From TrEMBL:
Record domain Bacterial bifunctional deaminase-reductase C-terminal: where: 4-177
Coiled-coil stretches noted in the UniProt entry, renumbered to this chain: none
Name recorded for this polypeptide: Dihydrofolate reductase family protein
Source superkingdom: Bacteria
Length: 193
């Protein structure tokens, strides 16, 4: 089974979007460098951020997201983001009309079912869980091995929380990676069991 990583870009005060689901300045670091992060060449980051981010992205086999994120992005127009092979969508609603059941998107009910499907699809590759409500549910279920966050120097004051509405304490180990990019701090923590 692959490592399960909860990930997102986050403000210093712990938000992944504002109240209207807008990322504000959170993604600025994706465009402030001179090293292309993907094949499109649209995202360009510092060499330091590339050296941290690209190898991680290359290890991700499946991303788990909630239906809200899927709807906001329009399912990334049918093409999983970041070169990921599969996206597992946690939803209590039926899949949208026109989605190929044999394609890269898989619609399941509940985080345990999502994790089972994601692990089946990922094999020994990383299962990435988008931070937010679904990520918080997966963490609360004890299914997260690692927390990765790209902390951007902006304060939102309110919005969508990195850990969602989680209401119990979870201990993380000290960060085993702290990498300073240009206008972003990359952090990685192991989850204590």
């Amino acid at each position: 089974m692959g490592t399960v990583v909860m990930y997102n870009v986050v403000s210093v005060d712990g938000f992944i979007a504002d109240e209207q689901d807008r990322p504000g300045h959170l993604f600025d670091w994706y465009f402030n460098g001179d090293v292309p992060l993907d094949e499109s060449g649209q995202m360009t980051v510092s060499q330091t951020s590339y050296d941290y981010t690209r190898p991680y992205w290359d290890r991700v086999g499946v991303t788990i997201v909630g239906r809200h994120v899927f709807d906001l992005t329009n399912g990334w127009d049918g093409k999983p983001p970041g070169g990921v092979d599969h996206v597992v969508v946690v939803t209590h609603r039926p899949e949208p009309d026109g989605w190929n059941p044999e394609g890269a998107y898989h619609f399941v009910d509940g985080v345990e079912a999502a994790m089972a499907k994601a692990q089946e699809l990922a094999g020994d590759r990383v299962v990435e869980v988008a931070a937010g409500d679904v990520g918080g549910q997966v963490l609360a279920a004890g299914l997260v091995d690692e927390v990765r966050m790209d902390v951007v120097p902006v304060v939102f004051g309110s919005g969508k929380r990195y850990f969602g509405s989680i209401d119990t304490q979870h201990l993380l180990d000290d960060p085993d990676v702290v990498t300073q990019g240009d206008r972003v701090l990359h952090l990685r923590y192991r989850v204590r069991r």
